[in-house]
Amino acid sequence: MTFPSGPLLFLPGLLNDAVLWRRPIAALADRTAAVVADLTLDDSIAAMARRALAAAPPRFGLVALSMGGYVAFEILRQAPERVTRLALFDTGAAPEDAAHAALRRQGMEQIKVGRFAGVTTRLLPKLVHASHVAGPVGEAVKAMAERVGGEAFLRQQRAILDRPDSRPILATIRVPTLVAVGADDVLTPPVLSQEIHAGIAGSRLHVLADCGHLPPLERPEGTAALLREWLEA
């Protein structure tokens, strides 16, 4: 089947797998074909982007969340001619700051000397809105982390720590761009999405109410509706 908007490449975040995007993809099955990249195998953003590009169609729209957004910016550095449109959820363009880097390294050291705990109930409030901590969304987040595992988590953390500053490329992006963020995201708060929106001419910013860091899981219908509107732009 041929779709007028072409295929989409979906990029998950840290400790996420294809389940992150499953419901929005299903809701858009009449509109587009989807490929979900595996971002668990490499320890640099550049290598993640190369692997994703190798598995992607010749031209595609990019849909990315959090760490996936860092990879999306790298794809735009490596092969901008292949990207037809861009949707960025709950991510940022700036490099890691010293305070966050220290916390990230501390967490990595704890895993090296102990057992990988995945996403704990104590951590969930940083990832999802309070209304989703107990219930199927919280359980889905914990299950994804368990599937991804500790070794992949360490690779992803190394990649995030060393990510480049993507703010300089924002002004070069000329494809239809959606920037979206949960209103209650504490990991990549709305101000980071506002910075991206301000840097990409013609982009559209949407803030999802009662939503944390993972809109595709927390607000799948709203996420799909935003993507459908973006595909028709």
Automatic annotation (TrEMBL):
Which Gene3D superfamilies does the entry link to?
alpha/beta hydrolase (3.40.50.1820)
A Pfam family found in this protein is Abhydrolase_6
UniProt entry keywords in alphabetical sequence: Hydrolase
Q: Identify the residues that the record assigns to the AB hydrolase-1 domain, covering every copy.
A: 8-225
Superkingdom of source? Bacteria
SUPFAM superfamilies on file: alpha/beta-Hydrolases
Drop me one GO molecular function for this one.
Answer: hydrolase activity
Q: Does the keyword Hydrolase apply?
A: yes
User: Protein name, please?
Assistant: Alpha/beta hydrolase
Lineage, opening ranks: Bacteria, Pseudomonadati, Pseudomonadota, Alphaproteobacteria, Hyphomicrobiales
